[in-house]
Each structure stands twice: as structure tokens, then as C-alpha cells.
């Protein structure tokens, strides 16, 4: 007999060896086969005997063992002998492939990401449970098998004490596992029958001599006791029946519990398997399937793995998507309807135009034109008509409600390119046709013809004469509103220039094509010209290559506004949206044909003076894009030798670079100038304008796109498929782009309906904040509710009062202010001698406590103010001496508001360490002083009241000292030094029985030696109750849940984590945000988490798995295909992952 049989796959030998050695160290005798023997009959028989003679069957569960035929035979033989089965999982497996016998029982996890020692402890505990019962089970099974192998030889049956012990053993089987085997039951029945038969034979032989003597007495006795025995027998039968019924009920309950546990374990394993597959699908850019697997993982079990799987999908691509599929050839035309309810697509080669519902992605109308080469499509301004331009056949117009044709303009065109546009009121159509003409052997030009048609009948209204248009792209021939045309009419008698090219003279005319009116006539010129329009179409900018000048014309007056010199090797130029400044791109270092360094020169149109030069572009500038409000400029550049490129964002008000992101593709601003969209390296990005930080990402590289900036959707063209992609962040309840220069604090309204944010809106040339931002937002809609204007510098903290009708804010502008939260009115301005570090309402909100942390050591006081009048009531001065090196680190009210606790630390000049003091809040009298010696080191730390104000917790940063003191007597309750750790945060549990302490590790050696960087102490004894391991940097903030079962932590590693305080298990981790985290807070119902970030954003995160799954299903473009379902849910009926 052996204690343990280890079943394993040959690929898992390293782990099997390790397990074998560990079990030997714990005194267990194991049977394990190390030889790679072919599965012969003798070999299998040896394995079967070993299984029969072992107490516990351990199965090493892995991807290879689940498909091993030999392992399956071993499992089935162990089940046949009712062996105790213990599966130990060493890597993620698909539960659908696990043997049903193992799938129905608890698993022990010992994967690479699981801790080995706890798994071994669980294994040993499982082996030792009901140890004697299992031993007897094995012994009895061995004897029963011997009896069976000898054809039920009676000499192998049990007798006497052995039989009585075996019957007692089986009588206790109701609540034991493993259960007795059928063979064991048959063996005991045969043993009892044989014993009874032998007893009857002995009684007959011995009793014959005494039969006559005792017969009469026995008969009399029997007759007298018969009635009694009958009554007792009946009573016994009732009790036995009742006991049997109770036992059966108990067994049924046990089986139901075991089944529930088995189902829970199966769901847990399957959830972890799906969560593991999510990352695999993300790596393969299969975002849609990854999203669906993440939802399935969450449905099966709410675990850290399922939570992280969904967050990983959201982080990899914050978008939803609708496919528009049906074209047989590549799509060449895209258009939104004016109300964004419909999308039109066209294919040049399949000759069709398709109209789609923008919400559902369903095909509304299929327009088969019977014409080839659809060049372009365009909705009428009212959305009732759509036109299609055909390069060789003309223009067609269809009704968008019915899909029926309205009219056809049958132009027999020889032109290679053709476009058409609606007038602003939809009453006319402009046809735009290009045709190449050969002028000489070495010279050719393009004649462009404009025709204006009636928008309802297609009749020709008038023609515009042919003109020379080879002066730039179509976008430069038409103004931004597509109402004016720039025409270059050729004048004959040109002269022959260099290389035999003919240089003709041209006259430029600006025409309002909807009326045919000539708006302006430009001077004659025979040079190659480049032209750009101002945003409002009132100005035109022309470059003249002969005299190297840029000229700006006011079109309505014909006035020449400015002449800007072109210095050096310039590339391109552009006007800002207001038309007040011109940007000129210039190469400053071009030793060969490659530009190594570029600059941008900004000129004032009114004065023709240069106002700024932007340098530092190591390569060639590819593109410049002004934001619509003119406040920002995006500059994309590329170094052709180093093969690198980026886009810089500049503040165009002070000409300061505010951000830079990788990527140098096309850029487009949104309407409110807060975001910029770029396409680069196969992906689509949206960036914050104020910081250059990433806001959203989608794994698409479209051939062409149209960005609907109102709701953030992008209509993309990708060969034969069009996609509607929403770039709004997913996986978060809300993301606010709150403050342009950083969000430093955020706080939820007591009702949870509103959020208060504070930060900085504008930085001056010196890099200092010159305008603070204080805002309130609606949590449900994300709409800005109110702006509180007045602070002249960064607002570092802001707090609601208990009822949420007032706000207290502090700023670097040396003031604390109180605001009416509903009207935005400023109620109080409290001036201070220096920047205000902290503030708080008194518990009854009748007073305000503020304190100053002055780095110059001139003012480190705390002040108490009347919250209604702003009158100074009390000054508390913890620092002693004018030239002290002490600094005030914190000041806080006692829970009843009668005292103030201050924490003072010494920067090492006096070597006194740190000091906590308790003050009377009415008189300012010092009531208590706690000195902590810090030596000559620089010491920082903090002091915290407990919930009832009876205890004070103190910690020091550099000395790593933590401890608790009596708040009334000053006596030490306990203290300890945490070697190798830098203590920097702490929080009392809600019931005051525990203390959570956050630490940073000051060396790699310390990290390897430390148990964890968040420790939970018993607040009365100082005993370490739990170590929370996982943060990779300083822990800055700790917040308990209301019931004390969870702890939320904020760290310098830019993560927010939620821990189970009883087990130390990591429950949730929010993804890293590019902007560092400044603050974190639970929502009142603890369903969400509020965070503020240095990138200016404030975010509200889901914490519940149900909310994450709902968010995922909101953006899921589809459900699993039947093929995908069969892969992951083999044998189960198909169902939708998302409704």
C-alpha cells in the first residue's frame, strides 16, 4: 500500500518530480512511474494494481494530460475503485476537455502565477482529511479485490473482529469520501452471510442435547414475551425508518452541496481559461472575439482575472464598431447624411451606391446604377437626395427615402476626373471636370470645366469657361464652404522658358458659382502659383516663385493686405483660422536632397512682421494643422535618414510646445479643438490637445475616413468594407477632459450625482499656473454644470460640505475660498501669507481649518476661521523659533471638533526628527506633544486620529517608524520599525481595529527581503495581520471600504488597486493612464471609483463586473459565430453572449 499515486503526462515530468520530492519530505509514500514504458498489458496491470493499493490519487492537470489516453485510463480505474481524487492544476486548461470525473470536484491551483507553498499546504490538508477512513477504504478494497480474483473463495472473507470493524466502518459512510465501492459492499454482505451460516450450524449441533429439557420453559417464556417483543419490534422499525429518511435527506443535501461546489469550481476554471484567451485574441488583433470572451469570463465568475480581461480589451481599443459589408469591389466613396442618421457608400467598380442605417448598420437601399466608375457621392443639405458622379457617364441623383432615381445628367465625358457638389441650399449642383491637354512635346496642362445644374431637374443653368487649373489640389480651387471657385484663365502669347517649357500668363478670378458673380480679379502672372483660402473664404494667399513673396488678398475689397518674404528653402504655408497669422515651413539644414532640420515661422498679416519662430523639428515637416479655434497647432515631421517621426502640439497663444506623440500621419482636429485624430502604423488615435496624451485608440488604418465630431464616430473606408467606429472611451462610466494643464483633485457630491474637479487652465511663459480651474459636472451626462472663476493659480484641493451646497477650495494664489455650489457665487475669500497647503471643514461645519507648508520656513502656521464671516478665530504656531528648519506637514480636526492635531517634521538642520502636537481648538493651548527622534536625517511623515479620537497614529518616512499613541495621555501603545521600507501613507479601518500602512521600497535588496509594501496592522497590538504585495512604487493613498472588507490603494506606478483585506487577494486593478494619478475616491455606493490625473482628465471607473460586462455589450459589434461558439463551448447549445 502507498499513500499517494501520482498520475501525470510525460510533458509534465519536471513538476511531477518536484511534487514527488515535496511529498516525500512530508512523510508520504508515493507511487510514480519514471520510465517511458510502452503501454503493454503487463505495464497497465502494474499501474492498475498501484492505483488499487493507494489511498489518494493525485492527477497533475495540464493541457497535455487532459488529452492523454493513458491518463484517461488511470482516471477511470481510480474512479472504479472509488479512490480519493485530487486534481492539481499546473497551467490553464479548457474545462471542456477535462475528464468529467475531475471536472466535478475541487481543484488545487499551482500554476506559474500561483504561489507554490499555499498550493502544497492545500494538497497536504486534502490528503490528511479523514486519513484513517481512507486507509481502511484502501485495505478493504484490496481484500475485496483478492476475493474477486479468486472467484469468491470463502477463505478470503472477513470474520470476527475484522468483520465487525468493517461493518462499523461502512455504517459511517454517509458523510465520508471516498464512498464505499460496490465490490466492498458485496464483499461485506458475503462475509456476513457466511458468518451467519456457520453460527446456525454450530447452534444446531450444540443444542440437540438440551432440546427436550428446555423446550417447555422456552415455549412458556416465548408465549409470555411475544406481545412485548412485537411492540418493541414495531417501535424499532419506526425509528429505523425515520433515521433512514433523515440520513437520505442529509445525503441528498450533501450531494447537492458537492454538486454546487463542483459547478462553481468548473465555472471558475472556465472563467480563468476564457480570461487567458482574451489576451491571446488581443495579441492577434481579434478585438471583437476578445471582447466576447471577456464577457463570458465575467458571466462565469467575478474574479480578478475576468475583471482584468475586460479592462485589457477596453485598454487595447476603446471603441465600438459597426460593419457595413456588401460591396463586391473596393469602396471609393463615403458620405454622412446631414443629420448623421444615414451613411452612403459607393464602389467605383461594382457600380453601386448603398445607403445604410448609421445606428444599426442595416442596409436601407441598394442603388444599382448600371454605370461603372463611381467617383464620388454627396448628400443634399436636407438629406433627401444623394448624387453620384461617374467619371465617364455623368451625374445621377436618387431619392434617399425610396432609393429611386430622380434624374440623370448624361454627360459623355472624356475627362479622367469628375466631382460634383450641392449648393448650400440644395437648389443647384456644381459639376467639376478635369481633362489633360497636350500643349507641346514637353508641356501639358489641365483644362477644368465647371457646369452648374438645377438641383431638382438636372437642367444646365450655366457654364464656366475652361481654365488652367494645374495649381494645386481641388481643395485649393474651392474654398472651405465650397461656395467660391478660384479660376486661372490662360492668356495667349506665352514665352518659352527653361527646358523648352512654355510659361503663359494667367489671370486669377474668384467666382461665386451659385450666382456666377465674379467676386475678385487677381493681377496677371506667368509664374507657377500656390494658393490657399482663409477659413471664412474672405482672404486668399498666393505664393509667387519669381520674387519669393507670399501675398495676402482681401477678396471682397481686392486689397493687398500683406507681403511676406520667403526666406531659404520653404516647403508650404498656411493661414490660421482667423486669418491674422501666416505660417511658413522652412528647411534650415539641407546639405543634400534630404532635410535634416526644419523650422516654422509665424508672420502677422496686418504688420507683415515675424512674431515667432518654432524650432526643434529634426527632419522634414510633413504637415501642419491649426485647431478650429486657432489656439493650437499640430506639426508632423519625419526624419528620412533616422526613419522616425512624431507630431508636436503647440500652444498658439504663447507659442509653447505642450505635447508630442508618436506618429506623423494625417491629423484632424475636432470641432471644439479639444482633440486631434491621427492615423499611424495601422491604428487610429485620438489625442488630447492640451497635453498630447492619448484619449482613445482603435486598431484600424482606413484608406479614407470622415470624422463625425459631434458624437465621436468615424466613418472608415477599408477596401470592400466600411466601418462606423466610435472612439468614445469604453470600460469607464465617465471620462471628463476637465482641465487643460492638469486635474489635481476631484470629489463626488454627497449624492453621487455630481463631481467637483480642480486644477489649472493656463500656464504662463515661466511655466507657472496663472489661471486655476474649479468646475462641477453632471455624472450621468458628463455635461459641465458650473464654472467657479476667481483663483489666480493652481487649485490644489476642493471639498463639498456635508449637504453639497457649498464648496471649499484652496490654491497657490494664497487664498482659500468658499462658494455657493448652486449659483457659483463666491461667499468668502480668506487671504494667507503664502500658498495654502490644506484645509477642512470642522465636523459641525461652523469653522474652517487651513494650514501652510512654507518651504522657506517663514510661515508654517495653522489657522481656524469662522466659516460664515471669514473672521480669523485662532492661529496655531507649532514651529518654534524664527530660523527653525521645521515644516508643518499636516493639520486636522479631532472627530468631535474640540482639538487640532498638527504634524511637524524637521529637514535635518536641528536633528530633532518629527513632532505631533494636540491643540485646544478654542484656546490654542498645547495639550499634548509626541516627539519622534529622527537624528540628522530629513524626516517627513504624518499623524492621524482614529475614529473616536482616542488614539493617534504616527509614521515617519525615512526612519520607517510606525506606531500608535494614546491621544489623551501620550503613552505609547506600540511602535515598530519597518526595515528597508519608506513609509508614506496610512489609513484606519472603519471600526478602528486595523491600520493599513503604505510603503515604498528603497532598494532592490529591500524589495526582495520585504513581505509586501502594504501592511495591515492590528491597531491594538501592532501585529502584522496581512501583507499586500504587488505595487511597484510608493503607495500614496489608502482608502477602506465602508465595511472594512476591501482596501483601495493609489501608487506612483499609476495604478489603482482594490484588495481583499482578509485574504490579501488582489480583486481589481484599474489600467494605467498616461497622466499620473493625483487623487482617488470611492463613490457613495462604492460602485464606482473617481480619479484625477495630471493629463487634465477626471475619470469615473466601473468596479462591478456586471457594469463592465454591460459596457462591453454596449460596444460589441456582434456575437460569436457558430464556429467560434463550438470551439469554446463544445457540446453546449448556442446562445448570445450579448443580448
Notes on the structure:
It is a single chain. By secondary structure, this protein is of the alpha+beta class. It contains 15 helices and 72 strands. Strands 2-1-3-4-5 form a five-stranded parallel β-sheet, with helices on both faces. It has a four-stranded antiparallel β-sheet with strand order 6-40-39-38, with no helix packed on it. The protein is flat.
List keywords for this structure.
single chain, 1139 residues, alpha+beta, 5-stranded parallel sheet, 4-stranded antiparallel sheet, 72 strands
Short description:
This protein is an alpha+beta fold and 1139 residues long.
Helix content class: 10-25%
Q: Record the strand order, biggest sheet.
A: 2-1-3-4-5
Low-confidence segments: 35-41, 203-229, 467-475, 493-503, 1003-1012
Number of H/I helices: 15
Oligomer: single chain
Termini Cα gap = 56 Å
Overall shape: it is flat
Q: Quote the beta fraction.
A: 35-45%
Radius of gyration: 42 Å
For the largest beta-sheet, the strand count, sense and barrel status come to: 5 strands, parallel
Q: What is the typical, i.e. mean, pLDDT? A: 80
Number of strand segments: 72
